[in-house]
Request: fold
Amino acid sequence: MHELSMAEAIVETVLDVAEKNDAQEIVEVTIEVGELTMLNPEQVKFLLGVLAEDTLLEGAEIIIEEVPVEIKCRNCEFTGLANTDGSDHYLAIVLCPKCNERNVEILKGRECNVKTIKIEKSDENA
Amino acid sequence: MHKIAEVEVQHDIMVANRKLARKNQKMLDNNQVYSVDVVGAIGSGKTTLIEALIDAMDCNIGVIAGDVISKYDAGRFEKHEVPVVGLNTGKECHLDAHLVEHAFHDLPLGDIDLLFIENVGNLICPVDFELGSHMRMVVISVTEGDDTVEKHPLIFKDADLVVINKVDLADAVGADSDKMVNDVKQLNPDVQVIKTSLKTDKGFDEVMKAIEISISEN
Reply:
């Protein structure tokens, strides 16, 4: 399953960063998932919960931020957010919102980015 | 005492795969191997098309055969006496750059001119995973329904060559192959779309030529 391999890669990244920063616990993880990325955020969240068991990640809040689609039109050079009507986000890759041409390049909306983590660590200065 | 600290990570899992894919392509280039990632639904005719290309093309061909569990496709290619590595993904619905890199170690890259990488039969998950191939060929058939392109737009958006197969069966299954061609062109105006029937050989020479031209332009 696609979501499982992605969740495994996310957990590996998060635990690696947490350990390097001497975390005692991971409190929160923020992940950016592009609107065109072939991932179901709810499934990713569920699998992260399963994979987090008995690790520093257990119990952390998982925040998934959706990244909207940004395109560049090869015809009129419009660069910016694509048109999405919510029900069909693939519309974004079909038409330039400015000139209605079809030859558009996708600039954003295909990421799965571990953006930040919040960790609890001992306060050496306290 | 404890404190909460926010750590900037900015590690994109997709970018990590893309970096590996670029490494794969470099390895192929160093060995002068041109590679084609063949994606398409289960039963669209990917294996049969690759078999026909192995028999018809005048170059040294190798194959990576991606499958979820079986070695069935790898066994078919072995009968054509070409180097083959079967890649069992186990639980995964796609090949990724890491798996492909491992397969390279079991292939005589120095003796291969053209490498076909047959992806797992799926029009969804492979979209997210570049492998490092030079060309992505999407193979669909009319028997999957003439709304296949509309239902899976992203795989066609990135395609370098699209094959619409089994057109001899279009009437029997009530599919409009012209509509499928038009749907691809809506998403990817410059891509070459070829209608084929491997039973009647329709379009086969065109597919072979498209790959040969792409190799020569590389």
About this structure: Chain B is about 40% helix and 25% strand.
